[in-house]
Amino acid sequence: MKICVIPIDNRPVCYNLFKDIAAIDEDIELFIPNREYLGDLEKNAQIDKIFDWLKRLPKVDNIIVSLDTLAYGGLIPSRRCPETIEEIKKRLEFLKNILIQKEAKIYAFSSIMRISNNNINQEEKLYWSEYGTKIFDYSFNSHKFGKAETDIPKEILDDYLKTRKRNFEINKLYLQWQKEGIFETLVFSKDDCAEFGFNVQEAQELEKLGGFTKTGADEIPLTLFARSIQGEMSVDIKFTEPEYKNLISNYEDVSIEKSVLGQLSLANINVTDNKNSNITLVVNNFKEKQGEIVMKRRTEPYNDKFEEPDKNYMIADVRYANGADNAFVEQFINNKYKNNFYGYSAWNTSANTLGSLLCAAKVKFFAKKYNENAFKHLQAIRLLDDWAYQANVRQTLTNIMSPDMNNFEQKVSDFLNYKIDAEYSYPWKRLFEIEVTLK
Questions:
Q1: What ranges make up the beta strands (E) of 260-312?
Q2: How far apart are the first and last CA of the chain?
Q3: What φ, ψ does residue 437 adopt, rounded to 5°?
Q4: Which of 202, 225, 248 is the C-terminal boundary of a domain?
Q5: Could you tell me if 235 and 272 are in contact, meaning their C-beta atoms sit under 8 angstroms apart?
Q6: What is the pTM of this model?
Q7: Domains in the chain: how many in total?
Q8: Engineering a disulfide at 302: which of 105, 108, 232, 327 sits with its beta carbon 3.0 to 4.6 angstroms away?
Q9: Strands (DSSP E) found in 155-302
């Protein structure tokens, strides 16, 4: 199978993860642009070079495309990009013609512009550092009550609303493409959601027009990758805290149960009972509220004994956002790796965790030329990133430096029976994400 992927940006979880997952099945031939062509925190994607690369692409079966990359230069540039709607439409018409010529199944997603509830402008326009929270409140109250008062300067509010309107109109353009049969699947992502807001309103409007919206963002290309893998696969779901599965995760607007079911549906994975399933999905969910170590949001850690399923199983660790539940990992990592283990993830949001986990599991399940070493390679990176770094070492750092991961490396190596020789770097020069390179 030949699959082309155009990622959101060049972060390890948005770029390397595709390569690591595809390597599990040597029958998959992955085509992905040079990493230097993609955007990062400070620069936009080199759109013209990606277009040239895409035009020269040989015939493939499936194309998974982040439309934000080719419309605006990436997910973050979609919020900052100063170009007019006419300029963007002209570029997208060029993309449309290329996609038609490729005669592949197109799995695409576009973001509904997020509204973060803080004054951090690292991924937003400069004025977010002063007015971010006020814009969030204005959006929230305008939707909830039909109107809102604000002291945001008119020129700033006008600029923000103009950018939103432009992106919304572009999303409606994609709906027209969908009606023309361009896409096999089209998803509009809802990133960093609250119960009310302009982004929620836009999602509702897109749904009325026939669009499909999904809570999440960075993981959606991975979930679409899973969807493109053909075949019947069924899972049963085991929540560690089943009585709390109706609670809503941080940065999401649906319950953890609905988040799980939504990711499974998008990945085209069936849900059934334990007797008839191919794999058990263990969800380490939270009581009362989801924790987040780096943000000092506490929650009750896992305090039961983990019984390793006697059938195929995978683990979505969502008790905390942005990192693993140490108590839970210490339970299962003391087991020895067996072939019925289909993966672990605790990456960022609940949706991020689920989408990436399901993608790797589905590729492993249907692999025509299974590479166990590649699967262990992937699991080593996830455990070193999501558990060792995010839930532990990151908490001891005040600036960017080489993290002390030695003790964790040995535990991961013992669990997987896999030799680890790792290097660590900060691709976006911030503590939020780390790049784990296994030699």
A1: 270-271, 279-284
A2: 27
A3: -115, 120
A4: 225
A5: yes
A6: 0.94
A7: 2
A8: 327
A9: 185-190, 213-215, 234-239, 270-271, 279-284
